Each structure stands twice: as structure tokens, then as C-alpha cells.
């Protein structure tokens, strides 16, 4: 693990909120299983809990027990897995192991296995997936560079990971794993 990530991982383990670079934009993250951390993140973003949040992982193994693969046709499961690692977010049927503060009002959970080296190292160091939502207030444009992070937002965070976003020009596409339909493109 990079020593640069140690403060962010320590913050995550103590219920903190971090900012980190992703494939296209800066993200906010926390431990998805820490309800108070997630609710604090949502409060910072001014985002309602019913919208749900994305989980980002270093490998599909970090999503074991969270995704109900049996509720997807085999071809759909294979399509999801074949797209990872990479900038592909899928809504997959969730197991009871995914908290309602992550799924929001949905039966599925948005998940991505990233190829971004900082994200991979962060998730591996933390030992599980992270919440991944754009580092901006709801309705505001996402930050593509660290200099674009809102100073008011930064004062509410526990750590900021150094690094650069990937070369994606817009946030990852979100697709429904059952149908392949694009929900955000």
C-alpha cells in the first residue's frame, strides 16, 4: 500500500469521508457498511438517500455476498463480468447484505470494478468496496481535477487522496444488468 493512501484508509476505517480520483471525475467515498458515514456523506452532498449510491471495488471478489447473480440470466452475468475491470457501472440485483442506505429505493445495487490504479489500491488497502459518488454538491458539476473541488466541500472531508482522474470524458455509463439498458450515459 502506498504511504500516500494510509491517511485515507485510516479515515475510512474510523467512519470518515474521503475524496479520491476515479476514471472521469473526483469521487467522495466512505465505508458503505457504516450507516453514519454514509448518511454524513449524503448530508455533505445534499443528496437524498432514496437515490442510492454506487459501490466501487478493486475486484469482483470484493462484491461477493452483495450481488444476487442467481437472479440474472447467465449471459447477463457474463456480460457484466467481462466488462470489468473498467469504467462500467451496472445495476445488479442486491442481496440482503447490501444496506438500504446504499440501495436507496431500488432492489438492485450499482457496482463497478475499477481499473483506475488509485481506486484499486485504495479498495485493496481498505479491504472492501467503497461508496463512490461524485465529489460535488447535488446538481453542481463534478470536479475533473483536484483544483476544481469546492473549498466548502473540502472542509467537511477527513482526507483527500492525491492523484489524477483517468481519461474518461464523462462519468461512467450505468446500465441495467438484466436488460443492458443505459440508465446514465
UniProtKB/TrEMBL annotation:
An example Pfam family from this entry, by short name, is Sua5_yciO_yrdC
Predominant cellular place of this UniProt entry's protein:
cytoplasm
Localization per Swiss-Prot or TrEMBL:
Cytoplasm
Entry GO MF terms: L-threonylcarbamoyladenylate synthase
Q: Which EC number(s) does the record attach to this protein? A: 2.7.7.87
Q: Which domain of life is it from?
A: Bacteria
Domain (YrdC-like) ranges = 2-185
Catalytic activity as recorded in UniProt: L-threonine + hydrogencarbonate + ATP = L-threonylcarbamoyladenylate + diphosphate + H2O
Q: Which UniProt keywords apply?
A: ATP-binding, Cytoplasm, Nucleotide-binding, Nucleotidyltransferase, Transferase, tRNA processing
| Family annotation (PROSITE patterns) | YRDC
Among Gene3D superfamilies, the record links this protein to: DHBP synthase (3.90.870.10)
What InterPro entries does the annotation carry? Answer: DHBP_synth_RibB-like_a/b_dom (IPR017945), Sua5-like_dom (IPR006070), TC-AMP_synthase (IPR023535), TC-AMP_synthase_SUA5 (IPR050156)
- Record-stated family: Belongs to the SUA5 family. TsaC subfamily.
What does the UniProt function comment say about this protein?
Required for the formation of a threonylcarbamoyl group on adenosine at position 37 (t(6)A37) in tRNAs that read codons beginning with adenine. Catalyzes the conversion of L-threonine, HCO(3)(-)/CO(2) and ATP to give threonylcarbamoyl-AMP (TC-AMP) as the acyladenylate intermediate, with the release of diphosphate.
Please give the name of this protein: Threonylcarbamoyl-AMP synthase
Q: Which organism is it from?
A: Lysobacter zhanggongensis
Q: Which gene encodes it?
A: tsaC
Amino acid at each position: 500500500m502506498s504511504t500516500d493512501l494510509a491517511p485515507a484508509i485510516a479515515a475510512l476505517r474510523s467512519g470518515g469521508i474521503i475524496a479520491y480520483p476515479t476514471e472521469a471525475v473526483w469521487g467522495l467515498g466512505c465505508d458503505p457498511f457504516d450507516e453514519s458515514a454514509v448518511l454524513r456523506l449524503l448530508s455533505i452532498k445534499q443528496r437524498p438517500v432514496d437515490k442510492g449510491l454506487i459501490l466501487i471495488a478493486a475486484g469482483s471478489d470484493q462484491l461477493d455476498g452483495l450481488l444476487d447473480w442467481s437472479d440474472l440470466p447467465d449471459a447477463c452475468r457474463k456480460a457484466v463480468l467481462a466488462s470489468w475491470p473498467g469504467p462500467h457501472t451496472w445495476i445488479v440485483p442486491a442481496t440482503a447484505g447490501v444496506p438500504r442506505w446504499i440501495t436507496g429505493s431500488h432492489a438492485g445495487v450499482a457496482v463497478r470494478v475499477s481499473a483506475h490504479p488509485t481506486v484499486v489500491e485504495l479498495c485493496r488497502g481498505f479491504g472492501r468496496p467503497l461508496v463512490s459518488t461524485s465529489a460535488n454538491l447535488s446538481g453542481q458539476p463534478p470536479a475533473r481535477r483536484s483544483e476544481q473541488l469546492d473549498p466548502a466541500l473540502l472542509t467537511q472531508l477527513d482526507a483527500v487522496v492525491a492523484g489524477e482522474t483517468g481519461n474518461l470524458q464523462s462519468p461512467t455509463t450505468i446500465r441495467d444488468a438484466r436488460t443492458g439498458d443505459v440508465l446514465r450515459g
